């Protein structure tokens, strides 16, 4: 605020001075023009800068959203609000208008509905007649195990938007992109060997069983609610990057369900030890030498512990896990803006009739 009030104050001062001069010399025509002329660009400038709405991108009028693709987000996902009209600036996706304003329902090309916010009796879904051109998009980023199966979802949606590769609009939690420059990557300095941050603990999780066995063979530094060691958001990155290895253990094992638990350590320069779908599945998304898979070690679990201890002593072997960083960098999806922009991009380019009638069978099997 202070930044802006200063220049405008001085503008006012100059303006007043000029107007005063104009008043005093008003009767002298030539002098009037002499003073008025130089002041007009100033006046112009002031008039323009008072037009605040001009620079706010998400004020759309009837005319300029006319030929934009309109995507209506029916409910904020988990109640989280976010800056939505960043498709052009952040993702180079043009021609999109994303809104939560339900008065756009009849004009919306797509309606995005987040599964976890749908009421069990479906009573909070749109009720008025669906325009013929409108597609309903089912959005979900949780695994089937952590997603309640709701009756009545078949024959309702047109498109799926999720982490699964076989979704109509697919978006994993992260992805690798080629780097612009080739540079050796130097991992940040480490003062911990194996770390794990976990909030959601259940003894039935595969990862809990694995951990209970694994911890007998190697020292694991644990954090998070599950261990009564809550960490603030700002401490997450420094902790993960100070560990040589991070246990990227998914809460449930499902094809393609590979979350930020993998992509965060990858991007921070920590080697992930993954537990989730098969190694083949991971290798579709990231290079094979970017991570260690628990399945690489059959029985006993000590093999993995021994291997990590070996890597701890052998710097060259350890650094081998960062070779891929010469050519790629990690992109972590920006929830939820990137997803609604992707949905819009899809609608812009594919306008054929489409129904997805067996959602239940597809997602929960
Ligand atoms: C909107 O549509 C008009 C004509 O239908 C076209 O000339 C114009 O380029 C379009 N604007 C955008 C931003 O696509
Ligand atoms: C949408 O159109 C229907 C008629 O087809 C109308 O009953 C409804 O009120 C309209 N909704 C909005 C939000 O304009
Ligand atoms: C979307 O799916 C519904 C339900 O199957 C169907 O009635 C509707 O015609 C579809 N709309 C489009 C635009 O594909």
UniProtKB/TrEMBL annotation:
Domain Fucosyltransferase C-terminal as annotated: residue spans: 188-362
Which transformation does this protein catalyse, written as a reaction?
A: an alpha-L-Fuc-(1->2)-beta-D-Gal-(1->4)-beta-D-GlcNAc derivative + GDP-beta-L-fucose = an alpha-L-Fuc-(1->2)-beta-D-Gal-(1->4)-[alpha-L-Fuc-(1->3)]-beta-D-GlcNAc derivative + GDP + H(+); alpha-N-glycoloylneuraminosyl-(2->3)-beta-D-galactosyl-(1->4)-N-acetyl-beta-D-glucosaminyl-(1->3)-beta-D-galactosyl-(1->4)-N-acetyl-beta-D-glucosaminyl-(1->3)-beta-D-galactosyl-(1->4)-beta-D-glucosyl-(1<->1')-ceramide + GDP-beta-L-fucose = alpha-N-glycoloylneuraminosyl-(2->3)-beta-D-galactosyl-(1->4)-N-acetyl-beta-D-glucosaminyl-(1->3)-beta-D-galactosyl-(1->4)-[alpha-L-fucosyl-(1->3)]-N-acetyl-beta-D-glucosaminyl-(1->3)-beta-D-galactosyl-(1->4)-beta-D-glucosyl-(1<->1')-ceramide + GDP + H(+); a neolactoside nLc4Cer + GDP-beta-L-fucose = a neolactoside III(3)-alpha-Fuc-nLc4Cer + GDP + H(+); a beta-D-galactosyl-(1->4)-N-acetyl-beta-D-glucosaminyl derivative + GDP-beta-L-fucose = a beta-D-galactosyl-(1->4)-[alpha-L-fucosyl-(1->3)]-N-acetyl-beta-D-glucosaminyl derivative + GDP + H(+)
Identify the keywords attached in UniProt to this record, alphabetized: Disulfide bond, Glycoprotein, Glycosyltransferase, Golgi apparatus, Lipid metabolism, Membrane, Signal-anchor, Transferase, Transmembrane, Transmembrane helix
What molecular function does GO assign, one term?
4-galactosyl-N-acetylglucosaminide 3-alpha-L-fucosyltransferase activity
Q: Which InterPro entries match?
A: Glyco_tran_10_C, Glyco_tran_10_N, Glyco_trans_10, GT10-like_C_sf
Q: GO terms for CC?
A: Golgi cisterna membrane
How is this protein organized at the quaternary level? Homodimer.
Name this protein carries in UniProt = Fucosyltransferase
């Amino acid at each position: 605020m202070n930044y802006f009030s200063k220049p405008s104050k001085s503008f006012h001062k100059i303006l007043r001075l000029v107007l005063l001069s104009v008043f005093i010399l008003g009767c002298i025509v030539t002098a009037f023009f002499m003073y008025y002329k130089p002041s007009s660009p100033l006046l112009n400038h002031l008039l323009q800068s008072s037009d605040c709405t001009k620079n706010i991108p998400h004020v759309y009028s009837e005319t300029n959203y006319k030929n934009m693709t309109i995507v209506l987000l029916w409910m904020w996902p988990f109640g989280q609000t976010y800056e939505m009209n960043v498709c052009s600036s952040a993702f180079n996706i043009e021609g999109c208008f994303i809104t939560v304003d339900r008065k756009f329902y009849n004009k919306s090309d797509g309606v995005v509905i987040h599964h976890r916010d749908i009421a069990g009796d479906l009573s909070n879904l749109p009720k008025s007649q669906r325009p013929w051109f409108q597609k309903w998009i089912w959005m979900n980023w949780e695994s089937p195990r952590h997603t309640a199966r709701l009756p009545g979802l078949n024959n309702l949606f047109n498109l799926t938007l999720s982490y699964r590769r076989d979704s109509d609009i697919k978006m994993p939690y992260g992805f690798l992109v080629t780097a612009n420059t080739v540079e050796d990557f130097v991992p940040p300095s480490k003062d911990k060997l194996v770390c794990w941050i976990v909030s959601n603990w259940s003894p039935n999780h595969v990862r809990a069983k694995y951990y209970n066995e694994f911890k007998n063979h190697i020292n694991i530094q644990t954090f998070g609610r599950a261990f009564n060691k809550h960490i603030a958001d700002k401490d997450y990155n420094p902790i993960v990057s100070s560990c040589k290895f991070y246990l990227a253990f998914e809460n449930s094992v499902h094809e393609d369900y590979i979350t930020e638990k993998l992509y965060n350590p990858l991007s921070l320069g920590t080697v992930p030890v993954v537990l989730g779908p098969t190694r083949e599945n991971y290798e579709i998304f990231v290079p094979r030498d970017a991570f260690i898979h628990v399945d690489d070690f059959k029985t006993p679990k000590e093999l993995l512990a021994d291997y990590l201890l070996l890597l701890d002593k052998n710097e060259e072997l350890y650094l081998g896990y960062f070779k891929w960083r010469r050519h790629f960098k990690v992109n972590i999806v920006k929830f939820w803006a990137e997803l609604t922009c992707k949905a819009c991009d899809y609608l812009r380019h594919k306008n054929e009739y489409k129904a997805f009638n067996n959602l239940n069978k597809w997602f929960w099997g």
